Amino acid sequence: MPEVQPTLSTYSFDPEHPFTYVSPLEGESIASFLYRFRRAKGNRLSSPSQLGKILEVGTAIKRWEDLLFGGRKPQQKQVQALSKVTQVEADRLWEMFPPLGERSQPNTIRICAACCLEDPYHRIAWQLYSTVGCERHRLRLLPRYLVCEHPFSVIGLLEVSACKRCGMPFKTMKKRQKSY
Predict the structure, then answer these.
(1) pTM recorded for the entire structure
(2) What share of the chain is helix, strand, coil (3-state, %, to 5)?
(3) pLDDT digits 0-9 by tens, 89-122
(4) How far is it, in rounded angstroms, from Cα 92 to Cα 96?
């Protein structure tokens, strides 16, 4: 008998095997939250497409993890479906997307190395065109590693505290970040 792909309508929220709850972090981007949720112990969601199938939202999860919004804002039903699976209130999930009227930087992940040293996760504010620097540390945001100029990735921020290519740690980047 062929295996049935789980969908929101057929997926069983079995109390014995629920998805692991992942608490959203202060100012966290949807990309950072989705990576952490998919990789949380017990969730077993190896790809954005797997979560997208469960939620019946197509490629939306992949676009959100890549911070590619363009003119396509999330639909209410997509966020509601994500809310049911993650057990995070829909209003809280909306805070992880660029606010209405704000444009986000596509194809460039920007970070504050000082923030990443303290709490390594991606903030949605860093992606907004209107954000020049980190308000907390009064430092300009970095668009890539300073030595090898390799671009940052959201998943890279969550996994390691240094560049996989050149080995430059956030501690060194913080020292080289310019004030604003």
Answers:
(1) 0.86
(2) 35, 10, 55
(3) 999 999 999 998 888 888 889 999 999 999 999 9
(4) 7
125 and 82 in a common domain: no
Q: Which domain holds residue 127?
A: 113-176
Q: Which of 69, 97, 125 is the last residue of a domain?
A: 97
Judgement on whether residues 83 and 119 belong to the same structural domain of the protein: no
Would you state the structure tokens that stand for residue 27, as one six-digit string? 């100012």
- Inter-helix orientation angle 76-86/48-55, to 10°: 100
Q: Could you give the number of structural domains in the chain?
A: 2
Write the pLDDT tens digit of every residue in 50-59.
Answer: 999 988 898 8
Can you tell me which residue has the tokens 């966290």?
28
